[in-house]
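Contributing new records

If you add data, match the layout below exactly. Sequence lines come first and carry their own label; structure lines follow with theirs. Keep one chain per record. Anything else will be rejected by the validation script.
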Amino acid sequence: MAFSEPCERNKQLILEILTVELRECSRVLEVASGTGQHAVHFANGMPGIQWQPTDRPDELPTLAQRITAEAPQNVRPPISLDVRDATWQVSGLFDAVFSANSLHIMSWDSVQHFFRGIGRVLDERGLLCVYGPFLYEEIETAPSNISFDQWLRNRDAESGIREFAAVNALAGVQALTLKADHPMPANNRLLVWQK
């Protein structure tokens, strides 16, 4: 079964924040669920929330394996979702959307599609929670993030750590306002926007 060491390290710290931020939510869409470790851990920690994992079609078999083997009853079967699709084939609106370690892997065009999709699937007053590294004009970038960004761009010139200001501007176009910016270990952040 696929395993991500970073997911294992950060899942409890993220859960502690999500437990507070998502306390009034009942349906959460996770974009780019990857190995499914977050989905299983968060659903176990927040049994009152129905968790909908997603990933691109080629990643679904790996994700489905963990969900089938380990997920509690409040995790829905994973569904295919490519952020670049004009319409996301999801059922109804969601109280919140969560995504971890995804925006720096996507092309900038895909990041723009991601936010447009969020705007369509979030309920009024819905939350968007995004975990990962970001660059800030007013905060000196950690050497590890500079190296990571260079590694990402060498691997795929269209990927790379995103500027917070640029991402926040995309959120604003979808009527999302920054609610919280949580510093996390290893120079990551957990950003929370609300409609």
